[in-house]
Structures are given as structure tokens and as C-alpha cells.
Amino acid sequence: MVKTQFGIKDLENLSNVKAHTIRIWEKRYNLLEPDRTDTNIRKYDLDNLKKLLNVAYLYNAGHKISKIASLNNVQIQELIKKNINGLDSEYMLNIFKSAMFEFDGELFDATLEKLLEKKSFSEVFAEIFVPLLNEMGVLWHSGTIDPSHEHFISEKIKHSIISHTSKRKTSNSEKAQLFTLYLPYQEIHEISLLYANYELISAGYNTIFLGPNIPLESLKHVLKTKTKIIFVTYFTVRPENDNLKKYLTDFQDEVSAKGSCELWVLGDKAEKSNKNTKSVKFFRDIKQFTDHIEKLSTY
User: Fold this and answer.
1) SS3 179
2) Same domain flag for 154 and 184
3) Same domain assignment for residues 213 and 131
4) 115 and 30 in one domain?
5) In angstroms, rounded to a whole number, what is the distance separating the alpha carbons of residues 217 and 77?
6) CA 38, CA 150: separation in Å to the nearest integer?
7) Which domain does 150 fall in, by range?
8) Is the pTM here over 0.85, yes or no?
9) CA neighbor of 76 nearest in space, from 99, 93, 52, 94
């Protein structure tokens, strides 16, 4: 069953307002109107959550809680519009959270469209989507949101990356460096890989996108028809930490030995891996990766 009621700890996790502060605002200003269980435990609905997200935004912008609490929902929205400096990241994050809880694809699309009037897609991804995904991961693990919420947001972001990638032109030159992007066997977290593909195509490179769950054995098939390939992968969950060194050794022995190729590794586990070797290069984050491909294109 999808979550539509929230405990006070959930509200704290979602709004970054301490539970103690929420209780004070509730008692002193009647800010929220929770239901109570038979054992007197507060339960909040989606309207309460959305109101708290808006109140938290205005409070962090410097407005007194006593003033905010005296406003109705329409007045709160009007005050937010006056306070937004350009396209404020914090407020936009809250709108995407609202879209997530209501499974509102139109709100997600309209918000993204509004952001893209002032920002590039790369800026939106770095400033909005990355923090949103990081927060969703924490909220999912803490049980604050349902897996369906996390999947909804992830799929919307995935589709937006794919859509923007399709608008970019790949290089027509056969001399352009070829990148093949894949995730290791049993690794399924592909948003970052999709975004890496977007950046490569935007920089004018040719790519082959294999996607998630690819065994090393399968990479050899690409080398049968293509030469001088740079494989790009993300280590998020797989390979497991104690298998990292073996995976990289196997790549060198089984794949790079079969043809002229390199392996570029991104993701959390990349920092735990060995230093760069002749055929393996590590990137601590997507910015280091994009900076590197930018330099590469100038050579």
C-alpha cells in the first residue's frame, strides 16, 4: 500500500525541520492539523506535508513563523512567488517532492520545463536531480517513502535524460572516439550511466549504450566489430568490495587483452579501487568525468 500518511519523524526527514520544532509550531500556531491514532500518535496527510514544505521554505528564507502561520494556503503561495530568487533550488526540490507523492507526471514535466527556460539540462541535473535522488535514497532506506515513490521519480528522471539525449547529435565521423557504456552484472542503477551517455553525446562522441546487468564476457562481442573503445561503467552496488580487484584484473585479462580498449570507472566504489593503471581510469564524480571529456575533445 502506497504511503499517504506520515509520522512526525517522516515530516522531519522530508522537510529538515526537527520534530521538536514541528510540535512547537503546531501547539503555538496551529500550523498543522494531524489526525491522532487511538494511542494519541500524530498522523499527517499529504496536505499537511505540502504545507510544511512551503512553510519551511519561507522560514529558511527569513520570514517569522508567526507571520507565516497567520497566512492561508493561497497567501503562502503568493509569498513564495515573491521570494523565489530566479528559480530557487530548494523550492523546486519541494515541488518535485509534491509531484512524487501525488504521482503527478504533469507537475514534474511542467516544473522541469520551467527550470529549462533559465538553466541548461546539465545544470538542472547537477543542481536539482542529483540532490533529489540522493535525498530519495535516504528517505527510501529510512522507510519515509514507499518504493513506488522512489521508482516514480527515478523513471521520470530517466525518461528526461533519454529525451534530452535524443535531441543531441552524435558525431558522423568514424574517427570520433567510441565509448561503450554498461553496468556490471547484477548492477541495475542506470540513471548516472544514462547521464554520462548524455554528456558524451553532447561533447560530440559516438556511443554504444548497453545498459544494466552486463557480464564481462559480453563486452568481448563489441570488440569483434569495433576498435579503440573506451568502456564506461558505474560501480554502485556491484562488484562487491572484496571482488573489486578481481573484477578489474579480469577486465584486463579477458577484455582489454582481446583488443585496444580502456575502462573508465565512476561511482562510489571507484574511490575504493586501485589507482589508475594503463587500461583503467577512475573518476570520483560526474564533474571530474565531464571535465576530462571536455579536455579530451580539445586534444
Assistant:
1) strand
2) no
3) no
4) no
5) 55
6) 30
7) 86-167
8) no
9) 52
Report the SS3 class of residue 163.
Answer: helix
- The number of beta carbons lying within 10 Å of the beta carbon of residue 215 is 11
**What pLDDT is stored for residue 285 in this prediction?**
85
In the numeric block, the cell 535516504 is attached to 138
Give per-residue pLDDT as tens, 252-290: 888 877 667 889 998 877 665 556 567 788 888 888 899
- What does the alpha-carbon distance between residue 91 and residue 89 come to, in Å, rounded to a whole number? 6
Q: How many CB atoms lie within 10 A of CB 149?
A: 20
**87: DSSP letter:** S
Q: Which of 43, 49, 56, 48 is nearest to 5 (CA)?
A: 43
The CATH number given to whatever domain includes residue 57 is 1.10.1660.10
| pLDDT attached to residue 147 | 86
Q: Which of 167, 202, 218 is at the close of a domain? A: 167
Distance CA 49, CA 144 (A): 12
Task: Please report whether residue 173 resides in a domain.
Answer: no
**pLDDT, tens digit (0-9, with 9 covering 90-100), for 77-106:** 888 877 766 668 888 898 999 899 889 999
Question: What are the grid coordinates assigned to 192, written together?
Answer: 548516472
Amino acid code (one letter) for 192: S
End-of-domain residue from the set 34, 58, 83: 83
Q: Domain tally for the chain?
A: 3
Burial level of 294, CB count in 10 A (0-12/13-18/19+)?
A: exposed
Do residues 140 and 115 share a domain?
Answer: yes
Contacts of 134 by beta carbon, 8 Å cutoff, 6+ apart: none
- Residue 157's pLDDT is 97
